[in-house]
Specification:
Elements lengths: L11 E7 L5 E8 L6 E3 L7 E11 L18 H6 L5 H4 L12 E12 L5 E2 L6 E4 L14 E2 L20 E2 L8 E3 L14 E8 L9 E5 L5 E5 L3
Parallel strand pairs: 2-13
Antiparallel strand pairs: 1-2, 3-4, 4-5, 5-10, 5-11, 6-9, 7-8, 7-12, 12-13
């Protein structure tokens, strides 16, 4: 839910690594809940820190019939704006008239990236993100049915929609403040989530296959994962 309170305390699995200056810092690569920063980067750094601000089902209405926007009580005008810039073909949802729970829904992950280093760093590409549900098993012939990739805009690097996630150079930290993606003065950065949006299509029934885990791969190596609060 959009107004869900973030947990004050979050449990995370962490590994320890040495920084270039020889001091130790915690490098968290698995968060068991949202609102925890996970570190992504090569073994010895530098790292960018990714934080899921919130994840939820999106309810933009019926894109194939704009004059009849579905169930008006479930439509969120803000969600309609979030999906602009994505090709209509990519927005089509798979439907199963005999089993509506198998119908795909839009699922959004609002994510922020922080840079605590003294040099600008490139964030993960859109292809560096995926969600796996609890039914995913490596080597299973049906495994791909439980992996979900973000929908790409017409131009993933410049989607034209200021709220959609794009790979970018995250500014270096200045003074005691981190650099952030999105920028604080951008539409996404000044929104209620202060984050950019990853959009997925997931069968509604599969939202029950918890935990749904967001996997993040950095452009220069390193991986992390976050259990989503579905």
């Amino acid at each position: 839910m959009r107004n869900r309170l973030f947990p004050l305390l979050a449990v995370a699995l962490a590994s320890t690594a040495l920084t270039a200056c020889g001091e130790k810092e915690d490098v968290v690569t698995h968060a068991e809940t949202e609102a925890v920063y996970v570190s992504v980067g090569p073994k010895d750094g530098p790292y960018l820190k990714y934080q899921v601000q919130v994840s939820r089902q999106l309810n933009p209405g019926d894109f194939e019939n704009l004059s009849a926007r579905g169930d008006q009580e479930k439509i969120d005008p803000e969600d309609s704006e979030y999906l602009k810039g994505i090709p209509q073909d990519a927005l089509k949802l798979t439907k199963n008239p005999k089993k509506p729970l198998d119908d795909e829904v839009y699922f959004g992950v609002f994510i922020q990236v922080a840079n605590d280093t003294k040099k600008p760093l490139q964030s993960a590409a859109l292809s560096g993100f995926e969600i796996k549900d609890s039914q995913w098993t490596e080597g299973d012939p049906q495994a791909e049915k439980h992996v979900y990739l973000p929908i790409a805009a017409v131009s993933p690097k410049d989607p034209g929609n200021p709220f959609l996630y794009r790979q970018a150079i995250v500014p270096a930290a200045t003074g005691t403040g981190s650099g952030y993606q999105p920028l604080a003065n951008s539409p996404a950065g000044s929104s209620t989530t202060a984050a950019e949006l990853l959009v997925f299509k997931i069968p509604q029934a599969n939202l029950e296959n918890r935990p749904l885990v967001l996997h993040i791969k950095g452009p220069t190596g390193g991986e992390a994962e976050v259990d989503l609060d579905v």
